[in-house]
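Continuing the series of single-chain predictions for the mutant panel. This is the parent chain; the variants come on the following pages.
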Amino acid sequence: MQSSASRVVGVATGIAVTLVSSSGGNAQSATGPSAAPHALSAQESDPKVLGWMQGFPPPEDKIITQPDSVYFSFPKLRWSVCHLRELLPTEEVSRGLHAAVPLQYVVTQALAHEREAIDALRFLPIGGEREMTWEQSLYANYTDGMLILHKGRVVYERYFGCLDQAGKHAAMSMTKSVTGLLAEILVVEGKLDDKALVSAIVPEVGKSAFSSATVRQVMDMTTGIRYSEDYSDPNADIWVYSAAASPLPKPKGYKGPNGYWEYLQQVQPEGKHGEAFHYKTVNADMLGWIIARISGKAVTDLASERLWRPMGAEQDAYMTVDAKGVPYAGGGLSAGLRDLGRLGLLMLNEGVINGERLFPAEVVQKIRAGGDPAKFGTAYPALVGGSYTSMWWVYPGQDGVIAARGVHGQTIYVDPSAQMVLVRFASFPKAQNPLIDPTSLPAFRAVAAYLKSR
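Parent structure:
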């Protein structure tokens, strides 16, 4: 069993979008911010208000370091999500040396009008009895940054808490969607066979449960593998994985795997491949290994080459790494809000940005087509009828919405029917997104309806 200190390191390095509850399935039915009734409000927990890491030096009780300060616990996480590079080793996702291609904005006067109009939008939360405004939902969901683009132009942009225009924020498991997008690009370009067995590409998996899975089953998380992400269970697989992933020196007597890839080589089977969707982060790191082997490049370098450089990103991004320098393909990305807006535009415009095609339209078309809803099941109440493919969430309904999602409220929400891209960074006190879906999803739909009406 891990010490509390090493467990904190594990959470930060191994944290993933666990849309299942960390305290059991019953939390799935919790609604909105009432799920965290004893937490400080967004305004009260603002890192500037609490004084985290302010001063030269900061007061002793305001210093956030690792491993002993529980830096991913609330409210410290509201500072940490913008400062992971100060806590963990990382590898750069370079934007290159060319000038950034600026995002287009509506004129200043219109931008102010749109902010006022959007902030005042009202909606009824799922299962709620009282309407709330868009602006109220931002605070209810502990938003750190919000960007909305309509028809390719920014119509709304706000920053809170630890984040400003120059800052970067942990994307959490939106990282998976970057990894999945890169994999789908390689598939469509004929460089990666998604019908191939994992063992044919990465023979090092040996007799691991991954050996008999296909690449597509990994991409769609329909593998039959034993892996629990129940953070409340001290014996859950997440803690073994987190210990392996930690970049810090292993404690004396440690005999477990060292690094993401060593862990993947020991994963055991559970159920049958291809039968059902099970959200398990290790699939994303297996996919990261696959695309690194096929491309001959680390995930960070491939993301730079195929996305960050050609899309005209204005900031380098970075990804946390394990002790062997392997990027955390399942959740290690930190990036600027606007650059994830650019990624959303690529998905909205089927591979085109700034008049240039970065990858075939078929890549996005395949993702929008979705996986099998029958395999998706009912584990995610607000998304029943949707699916999951290439590590993107495909929402139910006729609007063609796809999304990247990460714990504590991270979202890239792409609605082609409204020609809208929405990006949110957040630091909600609890990790699981079903707690904030009841306020988030109707809020997003309210903005989409407003933009459609214009």
